[in-house]
Structure of ATP-dependent Clp protease adaptor ClpS:
Amino acid sequence: MSTKEKIQESVDVAELINGTSELVLHNDDVNTFDHVIETLIRVCNHSDIQAEQCAMLVHYKGKCTVKTGEFDKLKNQCLQLLDAGLSAEIV
């Protein structure tokens, strides 16, 4: 019988705010590909192809980083994705 040790990393809040953060979109069983693609184009300024590729990655991998940047800039985009019914978070 083996044991796996889980490690929780502590991250400084200032590092999250000033450093590079990622806007991650998660898969769900509710939204259509078209809705996800249209929302990524509108909210994240993705091209058609980029939005389609992200939607496919989310579907098959469970999640995808759709944007990187400063926390403050990503916060508004994350809220817009959530308002559109998508599942997103900033990490």
